[in-house]
Design goal:
Elements (H helix, E strand, L loop, with lengths): L13 E3 L16 E4 L6 E4 L2 E3 L8 H9 L3 E4 L5 H8 L10 E5 L3 H11 L7 E5 L6 H13 L4 E7 L2 H9 L4 E4 L9 H5 L5 H14 L3 E5 L5 H9 L4 E4 L13 E3 L5 E6 L4 H8 L12 E5 L5 H18 L4 H4 L5 E3 L2 H4 L4
Helix pairs in contact: 5-7, 8-10
């Protein structure tokens, strides 16, 4: 046992310090990014915000809406092969820059991945997603998928430390998902005592990834546009959002009418009782639920939320003089927030 004495920080613990700027309007800020992925060589361009691969977020309908705005959707892994065939029918080439196929690491998941990729060879991105990216079996699976699909972009996670980012990149991943426990419907930190404050995780993992020519996705913990700006400021190349995209018509979930006349939708973690009952027949005897189910207000179309998020990030860029999203991290100075100020961000 040992203790690391260095302070680790989450989104609520910091704010971005403003700086002199020559920008006079948010309209002068470009949020487009261009990347060449290290192992696959794929060239990608777009707005690097991703809808999480949760079945209450990463739906086909969400993918269609976000692709129109230049954003990305990691589509959840519970659609059938027939549903995938119908979804991909008659798509334009550009659409494939904005979707990811999600998979776990079981033999069943592996076979389903092969079946989906066999539908259309224009599919570019594979998101290999597990709660704990530190196992040897996970690294081996990443190596296997890279060997099978040398020209596909591989996203792997989740991890929170630089050494594991490096190991996964060297195993063949292009982009690493960073975050253990920060999500609003994730209870991993409560159930296991394991986690890492997200701002510190992003800073450390981005440093490791960029040294090897890779990228990271900040996955979890963003509850408002300012958090998205902080994630980019800390060095994230992409930001993945769950709760901020939940509750919209595009998620396809059931809309519930409350007694007070309001409408709500269910949002739950993919390790929650609700998700495991729905997709696996219940919680296995050897594990505990590490997610929760909540009701969130029905928000209508996702387009208004997209504009709110992107507008907030553009505004953050104007406060520090970054005319391009790429410049934000170079111009970001974080200041720690005192406890009384912290209450504003809870």
């Amino acid at each position: 046992m040992r203790i690391e004495p260095d302070i680790k920080l989450g989104f609520k613990d910091v704010m971005i310090r403003p700086k002199r700027s020559t920008l006079s309007s948010r309209s002068q800020v470009s949020l487009d990014r261009n990347y060449v992925l290290r192992s696959s060589g794929i060239k990608w361009e777009g707005i690097p915000v991703i809808a999480a691969n949760m079945d209450t977020v990463g739906t086909f309908t969400m993918a269609e809406s976000l692709a129109e705005e230049g954003l990305v959707t990691a589509i959840h892994k519970h659609y059938s092969i027939e549903e995938w065939k119908l979804f991909l029918k008659d798509r334009e080439d550009k659409f494939f820059d904005h979707i990811m196929v999600s998979t776990g690491t079981s033999e069943k998941d592996h076979q389903k991945l092969k079946d989906i990729l066999g539908i259309d060879d224009r599919i570019k991105f594979i998101c290999i997603d597990v709660a704990n990216g530190y196992s040897e079996a996970f690294v081996s699976f990443v190596e296997t998928v890279r060997h099978e699909y040398p020209k596909k972009g591989i996203i792997a996670g989740n991890v929170v430390t630089g050494e594991m980012v490096e190991e996964l990149l060297l195993a063949g991943a292009d982009i690493i998902k960073v975050g253990i426990g920060p999500g609003s419907v994730c209870t991993t930190r409560v159930k296991t005592g394991v986690g890492y404050p997200q701002i510190s995780a992003i800073i450390e993992c981005a440093d490791a990834a960029h040294g090897l020519g890779g990228q990271i996705i900040a996955d979890g913990g963003c509850t408002r546009p300012g958090d998205v700006a902080k994630a980019f400021g800390a060095g994230a190349d992409f930001v993945m959002l769950g709760g901020m995209f939940a509750g919209h018509a595009e998620t396809g979930g059931q809309i519930l009418d409350k007694e007070d006349g309001t409408k709500v939708m269910l949002f739950y973690g993919m390790s929650s009782d609700t998700a495991m009952e729905k997709h696996s027949g219940g919680v296995a005897s050897y594990r505990a639920s590490e997610g929760k189910t909540v009701e969130i207000p029905f928000r209508g179309s996702v387009i208004n939320t997209i504009q709110d998020i992107l507008g907030g990030v553009r505004s953050a860029c104007t406060y520090v003089g970054a005319s391009r999203l790429k410049e934000l991290t170079k111009r970001t100075t974080f200041i720690r927030v005192q406890e009384q100020e912290n209450q504003l961000f809870r």
